[in-house]
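Contributing new records

If you add data, match the layout below exactly. Sequence lines come first and carry their own label; structure lines follow with theirs. Keep one chain per record. Anything else will be rejected by the validation script.
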Amino acid sequence: MNDTDLAFASIEEVGKLFRKRKLSPVELTKLMLARIEQLNPKLNAYITVTAELALEQTKKAESELFGPRGQKGHRDRGPLHGIPISLKDNICTKDIRTTAGSKILKDFIPTCDAQIVAMLRAAGAVILGKTNLHEFAYGVTSNNPHYGAVRNPWDPQRIPGGSSGGSAAAVAAGLGYGSMGTDTGGSIRIPASLSGVTGLKPSWGRISCAGIIPLSPALDCAGPLARTVGDLATLAGVLYSRAGRQPNLLSSAALRPGKFRLGIPTQLFFDALSPDVRKAFDTALGDLCRVAMTAKDISIPLLDETEDAGNHIAWTEAALYHRQQGYFPARAAEYGADVGSRLEMGSKVPAVDYLRALEKRKQFFEQLHLALAEADVDAMVFPSTAIEAPLLNQETIRIGTHEYAARTLLLRNNRPANLAGVPAVSVPCGFTRSGLPIGLQIMAGVASEPVLLRIAKIFERSRSENLRPPLAV
């Protein structure tokens, strides 16, 4: 296996090479650091690279994995042991700068790890560094005014999506085998879709957000991005563990075709799709049905009302946090224009509108689960985003005779999962005529992550060509 093949191998493949002692964890980490040094100036995926820490961690992992079996020094911590990954830079890391992509926190060095970082360290993961993002995770482009724009590995003139854009770009470019991101209105699934990787937004509260700089606590989720569904399940399994026991989120026994019934929502998700996205979705749905799944239309009440409710919750809670910290409006001049304007809007949301949005959230949660039960479907499928990756500074998109805000088209299909607190996964499902990746989103009821991952895995196995790395890297 040459260096390029190794950079794009799966976590499972790398783990097998470790345990057969055909690959050194130290050499693998050195390969990742060399690729970051070579490609990060072009992609700007990382804000901080922790090379010394990574080498220290991987030397420890190698001594544990390669120690004589049955003797004191030998220890196998599981599938992430010795695997190089990255963390979105709003996730606190002890003694490592955590900026949240902001000027305000440019010198902030936490004194303790976020809970998920502690879990990843305990699992033996190697931390390569902290990835770039939309400022304070409050946007969908990752055009960061303080640390520079993250660029899409498939076309550096385009956005990777956001806010976890650096995480998605790093995974897509082979600059790590996975990354931890956050998702408040699509901030994992949007960059996963636009960058050609997989991303999981878990059920609300399923993965701890303790030690993560918040955007909107009622909507925030932490979750993994990876190149394959299997890698996604491996990362999620570590973070879902309780009392040291890691759940099997992707058991092979459950991968038999013919098990799942899919719902196609009749509202919202298919309004104003780009022609390439529509074609890719139709092809993907046909592939899913050919592997013996079934699909039917399903109506979801209140789906069209999720945008306003999600906005009012996020605006208000973001503004409250930044006021509590003394950042806004006291240091308003230090924010980028887009984030500053959203915090200003949040400061003006009437309390009654916020409370109505919370009530709408409760109603939507109830109606969504009722609709899934009445339709007797296991999950819903629809495009992850209505469009492919826009250009770096492209604010509007023309579809047919209408002009739309690019931000609206990227968020529209993603907000509902956050509002309802349910899990959703984005998996690559094809490419545009110009070679840009397109994502398929699978969404289901609360705590249905194993179902989503199994459906995604079945689809991935039927479309292995979607896993090819970007030609640009």
